[in-house]
Design brief:
Elements: H1 8-67, E1 78-90, E2 93-105, H2 117-215
Antiparallel strand pairs: 1-2
Length: about 220
Amino acid sequence: MAKIKLTKNEQKVQKDALKMYQRYLPTLTLKKQQLQSEIRTIEVKAKEVRQARVELEKEFQVWISVFGEEEAFKPGMVTVRNIKKGVGNIAGVTIPVYEGAEFNRGDYDLYSTPLWIDMAADRMEKALSLDLEASVLDEQVRLLSKELRTTSQRVNLFEKVKIPEAKSNIKKISVYLGDQQVSEVVRSKISKKKIDQRNAAKKLAEEAEKAKGAEA
């Protein structure tokens, strides 16, 4: 803790700082709670998206096996051409928002491939889209978690360091200034008493001189 000046100006500085910390702390705490809530919501959504991807994969495998021509469909037949992302904002944090994707389909001979290939490609696009959506949701969580760490550090700094420190400094300065005021009053009384004593002594001396003059 830095050494503080025990002055009225420093006391005002500390009081102003305390007011600022106490004013911003509720806002930071609310932001922390909002971030925590949003992260939980996004994590649940990401889990649901991944579960949907697993279910789709199971259906896909069963569906293809029915035709007995699994080797006919190659994963490379569908590739991602473009990922469409928007921009969102949560608690002041800019995040990407998944808005879909565009896909390319490999060339294949319509005469030499099974009729269900196009349907299989549609399902593969859906599966890839779910993977991309989950990836964007993970990025949202990463960005919000980073902001949450920073916000939590600030909340802890204000709660556990800055506010107690300012209160302690204000108390220390107040005690010092109070002691100084008491000392000043005591010094003033002592000084007044000495002056009164000198005046009384001077008066007695003058009266004694007058008495001597009268006797003469």
